[in-house]
């Protein structure tokens, strides 16, 4: 979508189009990332709560990865500098190089995100251009900070890059919408480094039904074009991501894919029954197939959050003023909408979930399917973050909580990176394509 500014649009996830459709009274939770410093508790403004020194050492000794980093949305914005330590309280961001070092985050999958738009050729072309520019920005980051970060193309690259003291940059595509109807475009993105792909986002795409599009299923799961996408991903050796997909779509992906699938940033229905969370029987099916769920930290999916009466009224006035769906607004009106929305978020901050609730989702999933099938995809810089874990500097706290819960260091290593690298390695081993990333791009 031409001109879409994701920095301003991070909150759209719960805006007029989707969460309102799921529940007209639901509060858009993505806006929590814009909560001003004064809305945070004094404990949150202070440095992260320390953990025992031995836990810090254990955490630092592990390869710590996250499967859903939306940070590339900031790369071409004027106020963001990857090399400078910033704070959530000051600008709402979660990830930069100094904080990666502080929190022991070695890297992960950096997201090429495109919002869902109309299913027509002009919109496909605009989305394709946006996605290519987003991939280019990720590659530019790796080139600019080549002494500190490096692009990763294979599962084996992670250990090597981290061993050299650099941060690991894999690439994923959240929403395959930019492919239009040309599945061969996956080859172009693969050459540029794409290794994970999700067919759908908040609304039904040309490929699949979305978990949060309640206007009525378009296909009853994957579309015929979506089935082609799954086969092409298997051919290329990409990991398939079922986050945001409807239950029927995920079942179709499991049945059709020759390798296990991942949910790169998802919660569990067993803790909070929400369209974006996954029921026990489906999570069990994913695990039995060898797949993995990466638990997110997006407050609106962790629990029901009740906004203040003032915020509810302000949001109702906003919807009345702009009407319709966020996705159907033109570029200029979107900018106007987001400016008005940010004013509301500043004046009447959205309620936030907690670290304890995040851990409840995490421990529930671990109890249900075991440590071979659970990891972390917190949705950093895409709406994730909770009180008690406002950015990546708090990651040692997760390690501490898992140790306290009785999980072994071996289990926790699987959680942080072992499981997702296993899936990537399985995808590589099953690939049938002879297409390679040219050395000039590596």
TrEMBL record:
Residues spanning the membrane: none
Tagged with keyword Protease: yes
Keywords for this protein: Dipeptidase, Hydrolase, Protease, Signal
Molecular function in Gene Ontology: dipeptidase activity
UniProt cross-references to InterPro entries, sorted A to Z: Metal_Hydrolase, Pept_M19
SUPFAM superfamilies, per database record: Metallo-dependent hydrolases
Signal peptide: 1-20
Pfam family membership, one: Peptidase_M19
EC number assigned by the record: 3.4.13.-
Protein's recorded name: Membrane dipeptidase
Species annotation: Henriciella marina
């Amino acid at each position: 979508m031409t001109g879409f500014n994701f920095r301003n649009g991070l909150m759209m996830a719960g805006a007029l189009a989707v969460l309102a459709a799921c529940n007209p009274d639901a509060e858009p939770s993505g806006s929590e990332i814009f909560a001003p410093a004064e809305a945070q508790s004094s404990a949150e403004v202070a440095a992260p709560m320390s953990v025992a020194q031995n836990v810090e050492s254990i955490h630092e000794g592990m390869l710590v990865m996250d499967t859903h980093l939306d940070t590339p949305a900031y790369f071409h914005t004027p106020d963001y500098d990857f090399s400078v330590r910033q704070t959530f309280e000051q600008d709402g961001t979660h990830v930069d190089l100094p904080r990666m070092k502080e929190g022991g985050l070695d890297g992960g999958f950096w997201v090429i995100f495109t919002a869902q738009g109309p299913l027509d050729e002009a919109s496909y072309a605009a989305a394709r251009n946006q996605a290519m520019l987003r991939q280019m920005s990720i590659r530019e980051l790796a080139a600019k900070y080549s002494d500190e970060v490096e692009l990763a193309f294979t599962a084996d690259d992670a250990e090597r890059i981290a061993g050299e003291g650099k941060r690991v940059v894999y690439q994923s595509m959240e929403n395959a919408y930019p492919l239009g109807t040309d599945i061969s475009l996956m080859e172009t993105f693969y050459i540029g480094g794409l290794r994970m792909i999700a067919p759908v986002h908040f609304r039904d795409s040309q490929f699949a039904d979305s978990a949060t599009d309640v206007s009525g299923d378009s296909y009853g799961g994957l579309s015929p074009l979506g089935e082609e996408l799954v086969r092409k991903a298997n051919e290329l050796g990409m990991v398939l991501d079922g986050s945001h997909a409807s239950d029927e779509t995920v079942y179709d992906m499991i049945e059709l894919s020759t390798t296990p699938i991942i949910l790169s940033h998802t919660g569990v229905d067993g803790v909070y029954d929400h369209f974006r969370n996954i029921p026990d029987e489906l999570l069990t099916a994913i695990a039995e197939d060898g797949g993995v769920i990466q638990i997110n930290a997006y407050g609106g999916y962790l629990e029901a959050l009740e906004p203040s009466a003032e915020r509810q009224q302000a949001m109702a006035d906003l919807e009345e003023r702009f009407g319709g769906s966020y996705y159907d607004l033109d570029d200029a009106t979107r900018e106007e909408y987001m400016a008005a929305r940010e004013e509301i978020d500043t004046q009447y901050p959205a309620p936030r979930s907690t670290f304890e609730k995040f851990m409840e989702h995490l421990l529930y999933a671990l109890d249900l399917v075991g440590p071979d099938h659970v990891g972390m995809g917190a949705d950093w810089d895409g709406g994730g973050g909770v009180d008690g874990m406002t950015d990546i500097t708090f990651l040692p706290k997760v390690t501490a909580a898992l140790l306290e819960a009785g999980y072994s260091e071996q289990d926790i290593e699987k959680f942080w990176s072992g499981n997702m690298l296993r899936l990537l390695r399985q995808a590589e081993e099953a690939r049938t394509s002879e297409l390679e990333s040219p050395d000039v791009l590596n």
